[in-house]
User: Fold these one by one.
Assistant:
Number 1:
Amino acid sequence: SGADDRQVKLWRMNETKAWEVDTLRGHINNVSCALFHPKQELIISNSEDKSIRVWDMSKRQGVQTFRREHDRFWILAVHQESNLLAAGHDGGMIVFKLERERPAFTPISGGVLFVKDRYVRSFDYGSGKDTALMSIRRSGNSGGPAVARSVHYNEQENMLLVCHDTDGGSYELYSVPRDGRSSDQSQECKRGAGSSAVFVARQRFAVLDKNRQILIKNFQNEVTKKCAPPHASTDCLFPVGTGMLLLRSEERISLFDVQQRKAVAELSTPAVKYVVWSPDNSHVALLSKHGVVIANKKLEQLCMVHETIRIKSGAWDGNEVFVYSTLNHIKYCLINGDSGIIRTLDVPVYISRVSGGTVHCLDREGKVRKMVVDVTECQFKLSLHKKEFERVIRIIKQSRLSGHAIIAYLQKKGFPQVALHFVSDEQTRFNLAVECGNVDIALQAAQALDSKENWHRLGAEALKHGNHQVVEMAYQRTKDMEKLSFLYLMTGNIDKLKKMLKIAEMRSDVMGRFHNALYLGDVPERVKLLVEAGHIPLAYITALTYGLTEQAEALSQQLTAAGLPLPEPLSPAPKMLYPALPISRDSNWPLLTVSKGTFERTLAGGGGGGATADSGLGDAGLDLDDMDGGGGWGDDDLDLDGTGGGGGGGGGG
């Protein structure tokens, strides 16, 4: 109970009466609220003296005090399952934790070593055996279990460093029994003050003392060397390897050489909370509250990933993939900056080891959990980055990677030919096929979509590749008469040029007729067209220039009768204008050769559909007389052979 006498009283009671057991003194104003912690032997109280106090029930003394400057506290509530408390004050409400929920752990060979309920335990991944190695003392004045902030283990010497936040920062050095025989007895340890402590050599460890000096000590806890950090604001040490340390100061991290007593590299980064080295020490992950920075061993930044929610932990899968956990996700980051989500989480976990698709982690209860996750996407991106194309192909064949994200990633990284194998949407396939120059697949998609815009794009792309047979089909589908006529000119297809001339005449396309007559070298047709269009002088000079004497005389009489002067010949020795014969007529032009890469050759497996020179797009397939509604001519279909009745038969278009 709490009352205006400024005291918290502990009572014992039965069905009929209650009697006072003890009194907890410390508040200096009226006690507003008091309650029991649901899981620990603690009492929490608050008061109008602007403080919240935590009391040890067994020792009957205060162990923690929280204060606010300007607000009196009035009410308390404690969460029945999680480590959360809420307190109402004059200005609002605060929600806080009594202690760290992250278990202190460190990876060891084949397992993980961690602290749980005053015991140092080891867990073997292979056998799944959880062994209590030894018990450790209670930390500081705390009546609850010792809450270690971090642990570091020296496997060569079986020495353990345990760091606490109590008493302004302290460390304890233990000798760990190999077989756990002394697990029931508290081990004697060497203690000292310091904000952090890590091993720096086989028989040496470094401590950052309260004066911000680096002390190198032996296992007898004796100082053997002192070093001044490069920055006075240094507040934390992280392990690197023999003779090296990482120092945190404000928003930078420094690589410190203990022998030379100087920083050999620095990197600007948000305040680092945890450091994780890859197995071969070639890369390091620097974890801050909302970011992961990946750097090499020279502390040169390779990439950075920003998160909107807190990052909890991480571990390396090999030397090129870093897997980390946030409050509600497990994610990955490659050394080239690619990242993604592996799975969601119901409760936060702290990753201790990642191997392939298996993640070992600890939960907030200090239990080691094993999760099997799908890392296909991560391995796929890593294989692409390392250009291990055979493995990429194997992943494509065996997995079901899909979605717009993986397609966008492949396009961004310059692998549209790989993205083709992940899409079923025809428009997306068409876009990717055009991007990577795969005319075969682009033609298949264009035929399925049958839109004018796609045929335009396909025609332009096929022209770049010299695939004039596909270009011809595209121009036919879009009814692009001018381009189609010019294509027949370039390929020397005189028969189809003559048909194009007839089509232009039937469509009353004057310019189309003139161009086709020009391409064919058909002077009489041009003279006839000019006369029909009323250009008698042009018709006369054309007939005169090309030696059509009879037509020239008839036209001169018309000009004289109309009172118009006769044009003078343009050249004293005119020559016949006729298109040059093309070098290649039947086969596609060898202008642009796109060789099939590893993906196309392997995935196609010898079978490929599409339009090549031998894939069935011959003259019969694209002949103007044979184009039905799918050919795109619509109501303009013509019976060019004069058989009658065929002109309107091709519906659709």
Number 2:
Amino acid sequence: MKRRCKKDPKLEECSNKDLITSLSDVRDKLVKHYNYEATGPGKESSPAPKDDANRGDHDNQKHDEKGSTVVVEPADILGAQDSTGEVQDEAETENADEQTVTKEEDDMEPAIKDENSIETHQDTDTDVVQSSTISDDFDVIKQVKHDSLSFTQGLSYGSNGKLYETTGLNGQSKVRIINPETFEVEKSIDLDRSFFGEGSAFFKDKDGNARLIEITWKSRVGWIYDADTLDVIKEFTYATTAPQHQGWGITYDPSNQEFIVSDGSPFLYFWDRDTLLETRKVSVTRFNGRSQDQLNELEFIDGLVCCNIWHVDEIICVDPESGKSVREYNMRELWPAKQRGSSENVLNGIAVWKDHILLTGKRWDRMYLVTFPDWPGASDGVASDKVQQSLDEVDAEPDDSEPTTDVSPQSSDTAPLTYVDYEKLQWSELSDAARDAYGVLGATEKMWNGEEENPLDEYNWDDLTERQQEAAKTLGFDEQTWCTDEDGEWDCDEVEVPSSQADIPAPPSPIEPTQIQHARSSDYTVLQIVPHDPSSFTEGLSYGTDGKVYETTGNNGESKVMRINPETFEIEASKKLKRKFFGEGSTYFTDKDGNDRLIQITYQKQTGFIYDPETLEELSKFNFATTDPDNEGWGMTYIPDKKEFVVSDGSPFLYFWDRDTLKPTRSVTVHRFDGKEQANLNELEFMDGLVCMNIWYKDDIICVDPATGDSVREYDMSSLYPSEERESSDAILNGIALGSDHVLLTGKFWDRMYKVRFEDWPTLFLTK
């Protein structure tokens, strides 16, 4: 509009010269403006898979294992949409409405003269000129083709003129070089099925070589490629927001020789180009001062970090020093959501070139070359090879300013703090990094204030995991100080569980070495194949002491709890969950009064249920927490002799909950035979003293020592029901139930279940 009026000021819509003089008129205009920006075509969201295996097809959370489609109504500007994009029930919506904050008159500034004008102001912290309102001022120069199968996660131009794209989904992740004239794919490589590809960025290394860097969703692994051949030059590991350490988007700032990384949280992380170590992080805030998470694909443009927002048709560009939004663009009209065919076909892909910005999305069949008329600097594009080489030859100036956010609990310009120093502080006075470190040690604000006990306080140093010991060291602890009481006396060898914690089970003794396999096995025999409902998205499977089979299934609107006849495998009883719940793992158990019960958790609602297994009547509902910040629920099983549940959440951790209080007592990190952490722990079953588990999007079953988390047995099940014979890539192995003389195995959308016996595990059926 601004440009149209500049070209032809005689247009009727350009002739309005009425002035707004009263504060009430300003407020009305603001409300009208924000209502316009916040409404429009309803957004759709479908919670998807859970691994580096289906984040967008990101978890239809960020993606499709969890793949149901939920229509979300247009939200208020401060609206009541939850983090998964699911429709909230009336109670949730009412609660959100009560919390909606409206601008008070004394907070308002007459920044908008009419709905189509754009006012700017100076950010006093950064000297960056900011637009004060979201803009829809963009021009489409050209529409070009795009592979409609590409689940786009990274997009960038190289100074060599080529276009680079990385795509996601397990088994479908690719790295590509695209011809910038024809937009044909010139070269493509596939990632291993275990990796869910994420963001990428072109850069020049310290020797001037053209490189491409890529990260993955949940595997904490990245690669640097030769930009011409796509040969892997280097593999690296990384960390972002603990404890999940996901990777979403990445871009490169050549002037500071640093990468900028997003992980779905409100943080942007800055990594040194040469060491790949984090140097600082900032928290992103919008014009309204609110924190913005779900930061997806990134691009460095004209000194700003521009971000797609997952499942929102907006681009925001932030000051890399402060994290404050400087420019915000409403892109709903670029390719309206209603025309895209699926709610998962979201805007995700920004690449800047010399005279345009290239935009695309997940599974879009097109890309758009656009310009932003109100941002002339954005058209400067990427640096040429000559300029890039000049930048690479200049060392970055030392930065004497303080990092925006601490990345270590210790200050760089003062004497290191000790644990004694920290304990003199209030929880709110701790740095983010210190709180994160204490969080790894199980501490919460209530524990810090003495309102609750932390079971880890009673652990010896050697009882801590390696990760917990590292967190303790950053807080000034070592084995000596950890094991010294208030009087300076050594007490680690004398630790007794206090009476208030008497019911908390002690960590079990480690498995004897003679029981441990030393290689993966495929030594199993199929005893029988029995029918299974092919519409069941299996999340939990267990036998009850009554001999019946209990199954819980997932997907919003399709989640069920079922009791199955163990002879005919017909469904005897079925109960459907409310649409807002995505059902997850479950297990049969006996409560403290000797009653048989079935317990179930849900995916992202942090809610669980306990049922009467005979009637499937809901007896109680509870809330739970696992790994912050998502607190997801995946798998669940029960250890009868310890009277504790074991829970997985997609991280490498197993959580142990007291049966009667449902409170966590401890956690362990799962490691494979090769010593590497294993994430994406899915359906669980306790068998012969071990916690056995499916791995999301892998045909493996691993069984770990519940005391240490170390793998004791590993089975390759790829030949049980070969993946090429299954109807869908989402039809993955997920379901383990221990019977009296067999193990029952099935998967999501499988039309069959298998009764198997592991020939190299003779003690399996001696105890249950």
Number 3:
Amino acid sequence: EVVRRKRRIMRCILVPLSAAVCVLGAVNGFQLSPGQVSNLPAQRSLLCSSRGRIGGGLTDGSQRKNGAGSARMAAPSDYVPVPKPLLDKVNFPMDIKGMSIAELKQLSYELRWETIEQVSRTGGHLSASLGVTELTVALHYVFNCPEDKIVWDVAHQCYPHKMLTGRRSRFPTLRQWNGLSGFTKRKESEYDCFGAGHSSTSISAALGMSVGKQLTGKQVNNCIAVIGDGAITGGMAYEAMNCAGYLKQRMIVILNDNGQVSLPTGTPSAAGTVPVGALSASSSKMLSSQPFLDARAAAKSISKLFPEDLQKLTRKVDELARSAVSGEEGASLWEELGFYYLGPIDGHDLDNLVPILENLRDSDSSKPVMLHIRTEKGRGYLPALKASDRMHGVAQFDIPTGQQKKGAPGQPTYTSYFSNTLCELARQDPTVVGITAAMPGGTGLDNFGRFFPKRTFDVGIAEQHAVTFAAGMAVEGLKPFCAIYSTFLQRGYDQLVHDVVIQSLPVRFMIDRAGLVGNDGPTHHGCYDLAYLGTLPNIVIMAPADEIELMRMIKTSWAIDDKPSCVRYPRGNGFGVEGLNALFGYSLDEIPGPSDVSAIEVGKGRIVRRAKADMKIKVALLTIGTRLEQAVRAAQLIQEETTDVGVTVADGRFMKPLDKDMIRQLAETHDVIVTAEEVMKMAVLWASVCTYICRSLLLPRLRIRQLAESCDFNITAEEVGKIALLWASVCIYVGLFRRLRQVARYQCHGRSGREGKIALLWASVCLYVGLFRRLWLFLKPRCVYV
């Protein structure tokens, strides 16, 4: 009934609206005849017919018959290096300001092929950049960067942007040491106003920039957030849009809808609309034009004179009318969030895209705008369009065929071992489920999904939701395996603490890409997980050193039903039979399968190599995770170079809980303990080992524990401060016990019998009491706020 009522209202509106458009067109110098729209020579005409469509009948804007745009993309088999006369003249955005639309089309054609040729030599994110080539050209043609701010989200779409902003000559260094970053990077160029290696952050950043411009009194306030490649599925984007609508702050959000969420996931685009046609492109240009906005503003001013009930009706009529013109029923979502919605339009059609952006640039409205464009990921490069992943991220490749130049097939990856082990567990246990956040291919859950589609959940770029979603499953007795990259799990940290750890829910976190990941750079390194997970109570943290250990730890995690657990493992390949036998002391004929390995006792490390008992100096190398290989190789080198030093190599396996028995044994039998781990400067394993040794070995008679292992209690900050003060005083006091006793003995030297004993006792008491008071006075002001 609601739908029928809406349709009746829309039919009642369309006739007078069409008449109004005709009148408005006549006032502004053009005529609207049935079935035809005649264009004005000026670029800011209100209406024009669509020049291309996206979808089944997709046509490349570069294939049009007008001007330089008639050049066609060469078929891969006919590929020859493309001459780039226009691009060669462009060093910065100011160089394209005087170009015609036909020249902008030719520039887009050349820029797309430059991107293909450069990435073919270095590897990188290819298809997302190919999809935004025309959009990039249009943005830099219309807006004045770096004064106007453009935030790319996700920033792997930025390759054409970098080429137009003075960095084309540096592309041979893309994603290399001291080379160009694969994402926007503020230190790299003033044109990169905000770094975005993760996703869904652009709207918040652009909104903050817009408010900053307003509060600092800047005359021009154009802040554009380009959000695409699935980033709109992140909840943070909606939080920012809700705030922008509430603030009524001027900004432009361009939704780059390419139908994918990073890697293909089977999840439809967030917009979920049919391909755009001619009507949408024409209506978007009309709805963005200044005369239409002026007329709409005048109508709003008149409606304010009406009674409140009638004002509500006119607002609803306005919303329905613009939805009817745009043909986009989902527009109401953006309208409810406070945005002025335009679209969807063809993101490759410069004839329409440029005038619409100019209208938005010149508009006096302070309301945020949502411009919905449709693009094609991998646009213009046939091998990318045919590939299952659209060649999202590629190694070096051959341009005619698209075949990537990868090395000889090596050992299976850690990701594949995880996937196979999870499939084996799922066959045995129907409660096993897999969850990922838009990375099924990267985490191996795509393979799991082929066998267990109903137990595979891809939630999109929404790590926070993924963690709490898994927690809810655990409440109902399922065994969720939440597979997320280390760098992306940072985004769900609050949920991990609040929803999982505090409630001791047995969620199993499979943390892929732990440690250094190479070319993607600092935004994607997994260097922080041990630090941010190691501070949490009641959680098991494991790190395998090889593929067999990984399979065993996954089974260990599966068996833990009373608390959360984490398995962090690296990107890359396993060691294979020869490597395992040579490095870690295995005696294998072949790699065992998941069904052939067993779980590990929680908190139990292992000694991989022992120092000889007759060595003068003994050194223990204690590692966790992938650093075990380097530790074994270092021990071998030391053995070759000297006969005086014996090296023991130990694999801690567990960050929490530590194998305290093994650490005690190493501390008591070795002269030096060296920890090796792949984290930041404040090493987590090192800190944990030092803390344990100080508590258990240096002060063996002190029986004082920390306040609590968890925070499941109510206590004031003042009480914590008093406890911390007492703890610090007692630790220092007892720590100085032996030193003070030696001083007292020295003072009583030469005295004997009862007199000497009394003097020794008196001197000790005086020193202890005096120092305790000094310590109390020293520590009291420093512990008030602990």
Number 4:
Amino acid sequence: CMEQVCGLRALYEDALKGKQQQRGTLGFDTTDSSSDISENNTLIHYIARLVVGFAENQVRLIADHPRESACLRLVEFVGLCCQNPSLSLCALTFDFWYSLQSRLQSNEDRRIFRDVYVALLGALVDHVQYNPEDMESKDDVDQFRDEAKDVFMEPFDLLYGEYFSIIFGAFANALQDRNWARVEALLFALCAVGDIASAEHLNADFFQMVNAFPNLPVREVPIMRRTLSALLREYSSVLQSKVSIQFIGWALNFLLEGVWQFSDEVNSSQRMGGEFASSVPGEPLEAALETAEAFRDFCENSSNLLSRHQQGADLVTDLVKACIDKVSTLPYQVVKVVMLGLAHCVQALEQNQQLQQQFESNYDTLFAFCENRLRQSLMEHVRDASGQNTSPLTTPLQAHTIEQLISHDLNVLDMCVKPFDGKHIHLFLLQKVQQVWELSQQILMQFANSSVVVEALSSLYFDMFVGVGIHRETQQFLFSMMDLLTQYFGNFMHPPVVRLISFIVNGSVDRSTIDLFVSRFPTLSTQILSSVSAQTVQQLQNHSEMMQHFFRLLIKVVHVCPQALESNQQVLEGIFGLGLAALTLPDRQLFLQVESWYMTFLGSGISQHHFNEIAGPLITKLFVAMLVDRETHYGRILEYFKKRHALVLQAFGLNVLMREEFTRVPLDEKKRFLRELNQTVSVNQQQLLIGRFLKEYDARYGGKGSQQGGNEDI
């Protein structure tokens, strides 16, 4: 079969040649030649679809016998179809290349197809190249690029370093010919494998191309700027150990220039009512955002190199100054990303003790700029509220309401904090926390009902606390923030409060913070429980994450200070009640968290009195819920009771049996529960238990238990 299919190659090549020859005769006999070309197009497509479909069906046979002549010829035929000028025919082969590469067992087998994969690489580069004389085809090429990007990885998986050498040869020729469309297509081929290329793959040919990047005519060829920006982002982590600080400086400034250029196009498009021809594929805002993200990632990955040199510190200072002068003209989405990149650069200087002065100076500049923006936005809101500001709200951040503007400014300020981990500069950053505290109170007073503003504010403080760490100097701010948020929300179910509580629960905090938290726990838990009590089951389900954090917090409190719970009966009853409510929700993770809390609490040495008076009656309800649900792990808690509280289990078991809900428990579960209960009590206690049960059961059904209750229950 393979031989027969490969026999079609001559027919395919003849049709392809005939199509090319007839194209040359169009000026002489348009009607006949057009008809012939159409017939040849149809024949070419039919043959290509047949060959590719057959090869896909036989890919396992090809992979098992790669040295068979027919297999090699068939793969070469598929490669020939990929070289067809038609983008759709080339895309038709993609699934075959994926399947073949995944099935070939060894590198030796793969090397058999080396020439085919080299030809595939050349065909892909040809197809992703834009035609400067036919920009109407740009959308088709864009779509093909999206589909083909992953296919470049197939030849790379075989060629590795040779991949870059092949690209370099074509790159050098294109540079010599000043064929910038070809250069840009080759940059795209490099970018496509950036995710999987490691440092050992990057050979001398690759770095010869890198050294040529600063001399490329990106101003004259705008599409090249976007591709080169994406390439720098993909290789940002592996470039740092191989390039100079001068190259880092060029790359960061190049990326910033791209941000300015594409952002200017965004602003021009808005001024012209959206009718603006972008210099690159896609929307200009998309290009600006992608370039800003490349800048951010390159900044983050360059931090080690920047921290080693005085030149790095000078470069950071220049970047901060350039951005502060220009950033106000950028779209909001872009501002956030650029500021985060700058913060990574500034934070890098903090790693070098000799650069501390420049670190603090640059960080003060960055933070002050963002803080002043926020203060100006607040002043604008005050003028609006007083009626003094009659002009419509206009801002380069593209906020349509004052609430959006405030939240934007808070998010931008947040970007200055994110890179810090609290290991070295917590006291320096603490000063910034104190600076923003006054602003936070003003913001909450004016925007308490704005979810976007409060969410942005809480995110800022959350990242600040992550940056500075929780210790004696910062814990008061943490709890003050929690009090302030609770005051304005009226409950603890709001996401910002959840984040702060989760930070205490999951973070690494010192003993003084835990002690302070425990001292406030009765008040805190009462507020949480009052928030929950008014919630319906559906509402509780929406707050599942909050409840998980709360029970993690309870476990932590039990470990540190169990008497904080045992001494407050009202709080303890509320917690058990919340646990029961949580167990009614279809949330597996929440159930396991509640169960863990019960096990931890029961193992904490709680007194018999508190157990009998508080825990027993409430856990009776718990067991009924668990018995009805076969999927739960109630057996773990039940086993614990059997070993530790046999007498309580007697009364507890009777209470379970007498509840109405027990009638819904499946018969085999009832038997299992009664057998386990029976093993923990004496014969006299058994008689007492069964006697009381029958008496209550008979009373419930008016002496007609056997008729109405059914023999099963009896």
